[in-house]
Task: structure prediction
Amino acid sequence: MPRSPYTKGEIKEMFRRFSIQRPEPKGELEHVNPFTLVVAVALSAQATDAGVNKATRALFKVADTPEKMVALGEEKVREYIKTIGLYRNKAKNVIALSKMLIEEFDSIVPESRDDLIKLPGVGRKTANVVQSMAFGIPTMAVDTHVFRIGNRLRLAPGKTPDDVEDILMKRIPEEYLYHAHHWLILHGRYCCKARKPECEKCVIADICKSKEKTCDIPAPAVELPPQII
Result:
């Protein structure tokens, strides 16, 4: 593991401030149960949460269980999700994973990562999100935001999402681990943005070791308005 430019105290303070900003951060994918969460996360690959939510609101009203999804059929699923990228292949995976849940897991979404990644269209990131959000298991789901933040802040420099995940799991203090991936995602989405980080709005500007940093004065560590999901 590469040597960290941060002390343990600095990393702890970083997440302490994130915890003040968002005491109860939430994933922004809409779902009503573990099954719809699996489907929503699988659909979110190379798509925005807002775009997925727009498509799944109507879908989940008619198909919120594996049986209902299989009964709906691949062609109708395609119609619901056709505004999402790669929708044809994703519709095929949604039906396939629904069938597998029925046939191999008694229609119950499994908790273990090994079982989750058996499901068509479910990779390590999706499994981590489901474990965290559906079952309360501390995991680190490395999406594009977390991957960028890990490397940009030099908090977890890695060439692959698995590299970043491994380093973050080892470096983030245990008391902050459960919410950490949501804090990093939301920090990347709303503050440390891809094209241009908004350092003047950053609550950790004084701690940050990024070479792109443009401000050393941190924003006040105060609770942000509730997320609108």
Remarks:
- The two ends are 36 Å apart (CA to CA).
- The mean pLDDT is 95.
- Residues 87-105 form the longest helix (19 residues).
